[in-house]
Amino acid sequence: MKKSFFTLALLLIAGFYANAQKVEFEEYDLDNGMHVILHQDNSAPVVTVSVMYHVGAKDENPERTGFAHFFEHLLFEGTENIPRGEWFEIVTSNGGSNNANTTDDRTYYYEVFPSNSLELGLWMESERLLHPIINQIGVDTQNEVVKEEKRLRVDNQPYGNLLAEVKKRMFKVHPYKGTTIGEMEHLDAATLEEFQAFNKKYYVPNNAVLVVAGDIDKADTKRMIQDYFGPIPRGAEVTRNLPKEAPITEAMTGEAYDPNIQIPAVIAAYRTPSFKERDSYVLNMISSYLSGGKSSVLYKKMVDEQKQALAVQAVNISQEDYGIYALFGLPLGDVKLETLVAEMDEEIVKIQNELISERDYQKLQNQFENDFVSSNSSIEGIANSLARYYMLYDDVNLINNEIDIYRSITREEIRDVAKKYLNPNQRLVLKYLPKKDEQ
Questions:
Q1: 429 CB-near residues (< 8 Å, 6+ apart)
Q2: Which first-to-last residue range defines the signal peptide (predicted)?
Q3: Claim to verify: residue 369 and residue 257 sit in the same structural domain
Q4: pLDDT band (50, 70, 90) for residue 5
Q5: Hey, is 424 helix, strand or coil?
Q6: DSSP E strands: which ranges in 226-348?
Q7: Can you give the CATH number for the domain in which 329 is found?
Q8: Cα–Cα distance between 325 and 358 in angstroms, integer?
């Protein structure tokens, strides 16, 4: 009896837990083409106001790289109604916080406020869209800010240029070959008119999604959204016709050098499909199997048991158009980089020829279930996911059912996808070295 009662309790808790994780949302379009998503959660007096624009580094003129990231900074300078330099002061003085980030595919701005400041957040984001002041003072100021960021995060950061060195070899024609932060000489050479034209082209309501999540009243929120965003004029439609990459059919090798490192690294990189493709989800599972924690295959083998590596990692860096699947290793002592590659290849071949064990498969399922729950554990995270799934995946309900994709992936699929993408003739092997005269 006691056992049956315990089992019933667990089932009830599990059912409640599953229902509690479902994210309810409402979405609609304004007449100017701006997409709106609302998520009401009145459990805490907090609200997130966010806007994601479908513009990233891939949309830049190849001679003017860095524009998308530059605008992430520039559009905090001020507006016709927010004096220069007062954006952050307004937010913090009203108990809020804010931030922004840029990728190759999109740019995202958000504020987190006490819910009684919802209207303030909506007004500020509408100001960023409708009344930005883009002048030479702001451009010059943010140019120095971006240069300092590049020095700190890239130029002087150990291994800071590793991904850039991989990307420019993996992509020949697609703009993913560049970096998100761009080239500083391109920003230096740009005219004020070029910055203003970039803003006019991409910062339009029909190229954006507005998400309001948290402690809201939907009717009041819709009224405020209409008041602040409804009058903003629709912009010209953004069209993209980006070049396609030819498949990689022959092995590539290369070397790159970093004066900030003492320990060399090696990376084996394969071009993979968009994160919208089912195969990309399978590759995520393969990554977790290989290097997801200290009990993973590569960590146990190469770090714990064979003492060959200081660090080892497998990661699927997937984006809207393409991805890069990367195997990365840092050698321990005098272990050769070729040895690290051979040891990682050995595990890839096993996946390609043998089904992973049922135990390891269930462990992967548990990991992805946990990650899925965690991604929806905060209002800020939910707002980000709602915007991202709409803008980049064209399916907002992935916030609730993406886990079903992982649940449906079989051990056979894991084997077959590894066979399809992770072959020596489809990759770049890059040695990332401290000094040219040491190797």
A1: 251, 252, 253, 254, 266, 267, 268, 269, 341
A2: 1-20
A3: yes
A4: very low
A5: helix
A6: 252-257, 265-273, 309-318, 322-331
A7: 3.30.830.10
A8: 24
